[in-house]
Structure formats: structure tokens, C-alpha cells
Amino acid sequence: MNNKYDVVVIGGGPAGLASAIAARQNGAKSVLIIERDKELGGILNQCIHNGFGLHHFKEELTGPEYAGKYIDEVDKTDIDILLDTMVIEITPDKMVYCSSSIHGYLMIQAKSIILNMGCRERTRGAIAIPGTRASGVFTAGAAQRYVNIEGYMPGKRVVILGSGDIGLIMARRMTLEGAKVLAVVEVMPYSNGLNRNIVQCLHDYDIPLYLSHTITDIVGKSRVEKVVVSKVDENRNPIKGTEMEFDCDCVLLSVGLIPENELSNELGIEMDPRTHGPIVYENMETSMEGVFASGNVVHVHDLVDFVSLESEKAGMGAGRYVSNGEVSKNRVVRTINGDNISYVVPQYVRKDNVEKSVELSFRVRRPTQQVNIVVKDGDTIIAKFKKEHVVPSEMEKVSIPKILLEKADKELVVSIEEDT
Amino acid sequence: MRELICITCPKGCHLKVDEENDYKVTGNGCPRGAIYGKKECTHPTRVVTSTVKIVGAEIERLSVKTNGDIPKEKIFDVMKELNRVVVKAPVHREDVIVSDICGTGVDLVATKDL
Amino acid sequence: MYDCIIIGAGISGCSLAFELSKYSGKVLWLEKNNDVADETTKANSAIIHAGYDPELDTLMAKYNIWGNKIIPTLCKDLDVPCKNIGSLVVGFSEEDDRTIEMLYKRGVQNGVENQRIIKQPELSVMEPNLNPDCTSALYAPSACIINPWQFAIALSEVAIQNGVELRLNEEVTSIKKDGDIFIVNDTYKAPLVVNCAGVMCDHVTGLIKKPDYKITPNKGEYYLLDKSQGNMVHHVIFQCPTKIGKGVLVAPTVDGNLIVGPTSTNTDANDYSTTSAGLKIIRENAVKSVPNMKLQENIRTFAGLRARSDTKDFIIGEDKDVHNFFLIAGMASPGLSSASAIALDIVRMMQEKDYFLNLKKDYVSTRKVVRFKEMSHEQRKEYIEKHPEYGRIICRCETISEGEIIDAIRRSPKPVSLDGIKRRCNAGMGRCQSGFCGPRVQEILANELGVSQLDIVLDKNGSYILCGRTKENGDE
Description:
Chain B: Pfam families: DUF1667. The structure holds three protein chains of three kinds. Helix content of chain B is 18%, strand content 33%. By secondary structure, chain B is an alpha+beta fold. Chain B has two domains: 2-42, no CATH class; 49-110, CPE0013-like (CPE0013-like fold, Roll). A five-stranded mixed β-sheet of chain B has the order 8-5-6-10-9. In chain B, strand 5 and strand 6 form a beta hairpin. Chain C has twelve helices and 23 strands. Chain C has helices spanning 11-20, 59-78, 94-110, 122-126, 148-161, 201-205, 276-289, 335-352, 377-386, 402-410, 418-425, 438-449, and strands at 4-7, 27-30, 47-48, 82-83, 87-91, 116-119, 136-140, 144-146, 165-167, 175-178, 181-184, 188-190, 192-195, 215-225, 236-239, 249-252, 258-261, 265-266, 298-309, 315-318, 325-329, 393-395, 400-401.
């Protein structure tokens, strides 16, 4: 442990593990991972269900196993690790201030920094559900930690708001542990979770899913006693007269994730209001030279495999930055949302830094069948990809070969066109 | 003809299984879908992931999984069996915690080092 | 036998306990909840008003002006966040201009100092995010923002240190009189009783006589927005009161968030629920003052109760029928701004009756707490070397260390709930709303109190968080 590193990685979850390894393999001579928890692995440690790693390891792993494989890799290297240590502040001169009861208050000078802080859950406050302040309302992730790591039950009769994957997974998990899950309630007319999770988490256990419904009241003096669920119209406003009551002692919220960018904001890097994450270039470098970001801190992913992949890119970028210096910004194209697209990452591509191809990740705004994903610059079509269906809950990726990318002058507009 | 959503991977292919024609599967994106489709219509199975009590570790629960598919109707038997298990640290990933759990022929293994 | 029994541990009770604790005399203090400052004091606009609002010659006017003068110093002594940022009552029309003129005059008569009517373009310079349609505003530089529950808790901590005996979870259900001595709950005896039971004041008075006033709990709902919105305004922004209502205020909080509200609906004493109708009213009204504010950056909605009296003023002093039975009742707005002054006045009234005449030789009147967040990098380094527990950050959103949490638990009154910790040191106040730190705080609390994590409540008694352990029903 010293106080100067080539690369300092903020966060030891799946993103941090992958970027640290990649940075070390690509030119960084000293790498440090700073993790706030007492162990590496991040949120994967509480995701004890399987379904991870099919892309990356070509086998179906549980969260802790996926993390374990990466931790084994890190252990084989000389990457330094600080556990139980919270990064308090990062400054533009790349000083990292962090605090720990074991290591004290540390001020570490980095040549390059990779932001891998992940994301946090939206809370009851964020969606302003009316009702009392009774106990028994948890985010699904907080409940997951209680059940899977600490071995506590947060409730016995449960209503889940939001059909994101964590909500679906927790519906099954609570059921297996003896709780009764009365309903999963989703405000949108479609689920935000993977189809496989609807099947194996809800259908397997006869848990009803109410689409186009929301919780309109939480009742209970000290502990939740009841929730009122109402149907919503196409503008997501509750329809009077459609109220249903569920007697429950627990509400779990799976209502979205937000990139955790407190440190990025204080650092002053440029942010994208669409993703709530930093604006990044093709190699995951942010608007601040030598500061990289990847994983859920940039945009919320649905598959950890893609977090790893993206983080390898960031790690490689950081490794090359410390050995080769700055990348030329001579020829930059910007990526832009076209029709039915909510965001595109990376936001900028430096054409001179693309070797073979550049990968664009994006999400659609609404589910659509039989589409073409079209990438254009003005009227010039750069690339076109056929796809059977696209849904907002699944991140899409297209890869644009360098040769096609060269055709773009200023912009890459990504849009979804229905195939007629 | 039975319609299913494949749960083998996050893609979630929409399968059609012809029950009259030796459970022939269409709509699958890969061979695993064909296997799943037939199995789901004949003897559905699942992998169970859960926790067991652990003593002597930093935390009090160890994450575990069945090291293979078990019959779907045995899920709650397995869960009940897990309630009785107490493991002593240290434990390593892939260590067998209970062999042949509930007579399924499948082992329960640790998914984490503790 | 005690010299005085205080009923209620909101801001009124805390202020009085603090002042009385400086004098020789035995004080017993009863509170029905498991913590102090757990009702009206924890859910309000968190403002020390300048004092132009109360009608002339009311107790509200008198104590508000007096309180406004003494609270900033008191907060400094007690290490309680309080910022003198001033307030603006903004107007959009000629009618509003007349109201502002009227408020200005009333302020002058009440004794508010340094008020000024501000016009455009100065107004937009002072508050760039204010609706440009605002034509004028009453500027009252003496208004402050405060952390009300930390204020009350600090007062109670010092009071207890000075010897006041606080009994939590002790609801007052009977008050009798035996000659000159009150007997409370058939157990506690004292010649003086002070009723500062907030929304339950009339009920407590009813235990000794037929109440001659009625308290109607009046609910105010609020939004609390993320710190990303905290710089939206730099003063407390009020709207002009009209026939329809008082309008909603927008103000920064001492923690850097933005508070928006309140509504006003009569309700019952246990109703702390927010409603979709109430929240809608806030949304619609707030944007009139500050159109650019992002309400989707909300981190919490909450509701608080005003203890409104049908006498339309505070009820302060000795009851007119029951000798030595004192009231601090009807403490609706500006109750928070007034409580400190009222406490001084009640002590004076008791002294006129020859009680609490002698200051203790060694009483405490200040308090200091450690706040990791406010230290410089060098101070942190030095402090953590000596006290490693301040190095472990438990609440990321608010940067609160384990040391601060343990320190809060070891002070008296001892917090027993997650919200008790939140009120004392802000852990869980931030944007993740304790999603991350909640379980950790729970663990620290359980360890320090020597109880199981299952026994830790969220807030009031009965608000249990966990309902058992997994893997515990093996034989079922």
C-alpha cells in the first residue's frame, strides 16, 4: 500500500473488478481498488440467484460465483485492495480522499481514475407514494440484503411495486423463505423485467402481476397494515373506482435504479441527463482527461456480463492513458437519440481511437416488433440492423465497423424504424 | 401446441412445443431452448438458490445452490431441508454442503467463500 | 416529590426543560413516545420566522419577535445548524402588493427589524430562479432556517445533563390534585405542572378540568427535494396569503436540501399521512414561485401536525382555574420560533411564585458535537488517528461516520430507533433514504443497546423493521 498509483478504481463490484484487471493488463503498473464494503463483489454478493455469466463465462452462475471468479483473477495479480474504505472526494488533480477505520484517512494520488460506483435504488420518496410513514416499506435491494446476507425477514405478507428484475427475483425469494407475496404491481402496461423472470419467479409460484396498476395509498399507524392498488390510465394517472386493497405488512419497491454519481458530480465531470451518468467517449473516458467510468455508474445495465465487458474497455483505456498519454480529439462524432431511443452510450466517439469497430449501447422508449435499428449521419445511412423485437427493459447493442464509422462526419443518430 | 417462454438465458425466447409430435420445439434461438421446451412439458425442473446458516464467518448466512436441476415439485422440500443445515466456516465455493439433497441425486453446493 | 413536572417533549417541553435545568429544583419530564421531538417538532417548515405575520398585540407576535432574537445564539451555543438567510414574501399582482405593504407595516409594529420592500430588477438579482413575473417582495433579513429536531434534542441533552429526569414511553393518563400538590399518573408528585403536550394539550388539560380551548390538529404536507435542488433559492420564499390560502413556501434547508410545502387540512392527532391531493396542491403552487425547480428530484414526502387552538393565539401561562397548572398550548406556527422565549417567560412566572430562584453553580448551557463532514482533510486525518471509529463512513449520502452514530447513542436521551439516529446525526437523511445505511445503523444500534437487531424500530414503538430470521422454522 502506498499513496501513489497509476490507476485508482473507485468501487470493487463487477465493474471495478473487471476494469482493474484490464488496466493492469494494459499498461498500468500499479492499480488500487477502493471498496466501501468489507468484501469485494459489490451487489453480486446479495444476488444469490443464478443467471449470471452466460455471455462472459458461457455458464450459468449465481452472483457470488460470478464475483468469486473475478476476485480469484484479481488475487492472482499485484492489484492493491482497500476494503471497508469510503471514497469521500475526488479532485480534478486526481487526488482521491478516502476514509476507513482501519487505514485511517488517506489521500492518494492517481494518474488515472476509473469510476465504478454502480447505482442505487429509487426510493418511495422518489416516486412520492402517498400514505403514512409506517415501517415495512423497503427497496427490493435492501430487502434482498436483509434476507440473503443477514438472514432477516423484512415481512410476511408482501406487495411488490415495480416489475423490474430485482422485484421479480425478490417475489420468488420471499416466497421460498415462507412469505406470501400477494401481488406484483407495475404502472406500465408491460413488465420491466426479463421474461424468464416473469416465468420462473411469478408463474412458478402463482404470484399475480398487475400491469397498468400502482400503489395509491400505504396504510398503517406504526407498521404497514394495508396498501391500496389502483388501475392507471394511459397517462399513468390512477383511475377512481378501481381501488383494490391488500392486507400486507410489507411493501417492496423495485422502481428503478439511478447511477450513483455523487463523486462524479463533485469532481465536475460532464453528465448526461438521459443516463444520469457521465458523458463518455468510445474508451469510456469521461469529459475529464484520464478519468474513466464504466458499468452502472454510466448507465444502468440489465446484465452483469455487459458491465464486465464495458469495464474491460474502461480499464484498457486507463492503462493506455497512463502509458501512452492523451487521445487525440481531432475527429469526434457525437451519438444522438433518434426515434424511439432514450439514450446512447458512448456519447462521443473519437474516430482516431477506434481500432476495428465501435459498440453503441442504447435503450428504446417503447416496445416495438419487427424493427430496423438504423444509424445515420444526416441522410447518410451508416449501418442498419434487423431485430425481431426491442423493449425498454433490455439494453440493445450494435457494433459499427471502423470502415462504416469513417462515413460519419459529425453525428451518429440511432433510431428505431418499424419494418414495413 | 403449448406456448412457453424459455428461461435458460436472459433472452427469453418464445417457444412453441408440439405435445402431439414428440414435444418438437420451435421458436428457440439455441439448442438449449429445445431441451428446455421438452423438459418443461414432461418433467419441469429448476435450480434452487438459497442460503443456509453458517457459524464462524463474518456473516450469518452462506449462499448455496443445487448443483443441477431438481424436479420443480421438490423445491419446497429442498427449502425445508435447508432450514436444518448449519455450516461451519471456512467454506469454499463449490464445496458440497448436502449431497443428494432430498433424494434428487443433485448436490447442494456453496456459491461463496466464507 | 418533584418541584415541577413537564408534560411533553416537543420543542416547547425541550425549551422549558433546558431553561429550568439551570436552576436548583427537581424537574420530572414525561413523554409518551420513545424519543423527544418525535411529533410536530420533527415535521414542519424548519423556519425561525421574522415576525411580521402574527396579528398585532398577540402572544404569537410577542414571542416570535423575542424568539427570533435569541434562537441564533442559542443554536450556536448548542452546536445546532441554524442559518440566518432571510425571507421573501413574493407578490405577483397589485393585490399582492397591498398585502406586502400591510405585512410590512405589521412587521414594523410588531418590532421586526431591517425589513425592506424589494422591487424588480433587484428581486431577480437576489433570487435568479424566482418567477420573473414576481413584481415585489417583503424582505425580512432576520428570518432563519434551522434543524428543529436537532435543536430540540440538543436542548433536551443539556437539560438531562443538568439533572432533569426524562421518562420516555410514559403517557400521561391522569392528573389529580391533593391540596397544593399535583399527582400525575397516580405516581409522580409536584406543586407545578406544565402542559406542553402539543396536539394533545386540550386532552391533557381535560385530565384536571373541563378544557376551555380546543386544539384542532392541522396537517401540513411537504416535499423534500434532493441537494441538487438546494441552490434553487437562497432565501425562504413565501407566497402572499390570499383568500384561498397561505400559499406554499420554498426554502433551502440547513442540510442543503429544498423544502416545499405545506398544505393545510384539519385532521386527527394520529394522521401523519401524505395524500395525492395534498401533494398535487404543493406541486401546482410551488412552481408559481420557482418555475425551474425539479420536483422529480424529490427524496421524501412527509406530513406534520400544527397544534392549532380555537383561540387563534398561543395559550401561555398559568391556567385561569387550576392554580400552578401552566400551559404552553396552541403552539401552531410560529411555535418553533417562539418556544425559547416562552420558556424564559414561564421560568419568570414560576420565579414570581418563588420557585426556581437559584441558578445552579455548575450548570451546562452549551454542547458540542463532532461532525466528520465539516472537518478539513487534515482535521479528519488527525481525528481518525485518535478515534478510528470516525473513519468508517456509514451514511454515504450525508457522509456520517460510525463514530458520530455511536456518540449519538451514548448521549442521553438515548435514541432507540433508526429515525432517532437520523434526527441526531443525519444518517439516512439523504437521497437513498437509508436504503444503504439503514441495516448498518440498525446493527450499530443493536450492539450499543445490547439488544437483537429484531428489536430495533424505525421510529415510534410498534414500527418494527424485521419480523424474524430466515431458516428459523426448520421443524414446522
